[in-house]
Amino acid sequence: MTELTISSQPLRAGSGRLPRVALALAVFALGFAVPALLDQGYLLSILNKGLLLGILALGIAFLMHQCGLVLFGIASFYGVGAYGFAILTETGGLPGLPAAILAIALCGAFSFLVGAVIVRTRPLAFMMITLALGELLRHLTSIPELRGITHGVDGMIVNFQGTILGYEVFDFLDPAVFWPFVWTAACGTGLMMWLVANSMVGRTLRAIKENEERMRFCGFGTYLPRLLAFSLAGSIAGIAGVLQALASGFVSPELFGLVTSTNALLAAITGGLASIAGPVLGGVAFAAALDEFGALGYSQLFTGIAVVVVIVAMPRGLVVTLGTILPGLLARFAGKGRDDA
Amino acid sequence: MSLTLIANSLALSSLYIMMASGLALIYGLRGVLNFGHGAIYMVGAYLGYTLGSIMGFWPAVFMVPLIMGLSGLLLEVFVLRPLNARSHIEVALVTFGIGLILAHGIIWIYGGFPQSVSGPAGLAGSVDLLGVEYPAYRLFLIVIGLGSVAALACWLNFSRMGMFVRAVSQNPQVSSMMGINAGRLSLFVSCLSTGFAGLAGVLVGPYLSIDPGMDIAMIINCMIIVVIGGTGSLFGAILASILFGFVQTFGAVHTPGLAVLLPYLLLICVLVWRPQGLGRGRAA
């Protein structure tokens, strides 16, 4: 039942548009000052990782909230974006910026094709097929026959001619250079998701999720909207993939692995599916926690415990749960005891 | 098609049958796909390795399915029942998390390297199979795999409890209106399912080796099988297991370079042709 009450709300449009828009713009602008505020490159690199994970989580949360489809294997599209960029610059010989744009477009086309086959399946089958797709691509990039293009299990070093907005390929290894790109991408994809969710397409999608048969009786096509939503989520993962290739300067078949997919899915669930900020914050929180536990070698164990605890205890996500608990706690602390409806 | 190749395919298929039929049974009753099934199989394999080195192979073959079957009790009472009201996807994710914890626990205890398990002395040699020398252990695997599934099919088709299980799998609402207690059935079916996973785990040791990545490899293959078979359809799952075993074995021999891709291509082909899978699954 909780799920119903969440999904019947659109992503909060809110009253008083103007202050919110101003606030969002201010946050966006302030974001660029982050590298100057954090003089530690280490913290910034975790933030970078967190935002990349957050972008992936955003795609998953969008598809889960709007369509009820669980994109378990988002690593497929993430990896296609990263490999697309690496191959286009190396084998294709394209300069950085066109290669990045083309790689994202190719990833969008790829997710459109994949979606055309799989959005018709049942939700559970859908979840498992996307999982299998990631494994398929992981094997495909490592088979010896394609070694000339993908360099097999060794992976590829990312290198491109020219510059992207004045930066050369090695500049991106610096977290402070990378930050504005990933920040812009996170805010841009967030805005895009918000716009789609509040459009006619978003409303149609949520109605299909509630009752697909009824929507068909009412004369709505149920196939195309879901295909579009799926392609959108895939393209967003492609953006994250290209950025990942830039940030690490390296792509390998592990990008397609289960670990990427589960981390992103968990970030989405941890953050909460019903908002834009939730998955992104979930991504940052998750990246920080992974860094902490990964250093001890317990990242998989942590992931397992996190998924059980979050789903059992906080089904609406960490951000929403804290958001409902914190004001009450603060109010009690301040002795006001006000009710928030 | 040589006889050896067919027998090899059947040996692999019978392993998948034991796993996939357990998954399909729980799915049919609860609508929940147990993503931790691969980890249960892994626990069974390592438990078989330990018990086998202490007591010998044969006692382990009987003990491990029993112990794992009892662990199905825990799965039912502590996971599936408390989360019954939650969406099926959420429960599936919880089982996935439990699977990760179990697999990590095993790696923590046994270390992250493969172990080899020696088979029983009586089945070490090979037997004459219509003029071809064939390893006796694999033949034993085929007999156990196909035999246990035949027993399962008989139970489902000819016993009263089996009839109830089929009824709930087909339509949970109507069958509960008819007075079938799905919860009680599910307790038994959970035990059966994890017991089968344990059996597969203990039998896989001497056939393949046991290693820390075996849970993920198995669960992904099982997912493909269950989707090809039609989620929740037991007979679809059996059919798909056999198909999958043959495709994997023949692929490895005839197209070695592309063999790893064949299962996924099979999945895509079946889905384009029949999005609901081969078998007749749950109505909902």
Question: N- to C-terminal separation of chain B?
Answer: 40 Å
Question: Would you identify the regions of chain A where 5 or more consecutive residues have pLDDT less than 50?
Answer: 1-11, 336-341
Q: What characterizes the major β-sheet of chain B?
A: 2 strands, antiparallel
Q: Largest beta sheet of chain A: what is the strand line-up? A: 1-2
Mean pLDDT of chain A, to the nearest integer, reads 84
How large a portion of the residues of chain A is in β-strands, by DSSP E? under 5%
Number of alpha- plus pi-helical segments of chain A: 16
Low-confidence stretches of chain B: none
Helical/strand content category of chain B: mainly alpha
Task: Give the helix tally of chain B.
Answer: 11
Largest sheet of chain A: 2 strands, antiparallel
Strand order of the largest sheet of chain B: 1-2
H and E string of chain B: HHHHEEHHHHHHH
Q: What share of the residues of chain B lie within helices?
A: over 70%
**CA-to-CA gap between the ends of chain A?**
19 Å
Q: What's the Cα radius of gyration of chain B?
A: 18 Å
Radius of gyration of chain A: 20 Å
H-E order of chain A: HHHHHHHHEHHHHEHHHH
Oligomer: heterodimer
Strand composition percent of chain B = under 5%
Which shape of chain B, going by the Cα principal axes?
globular
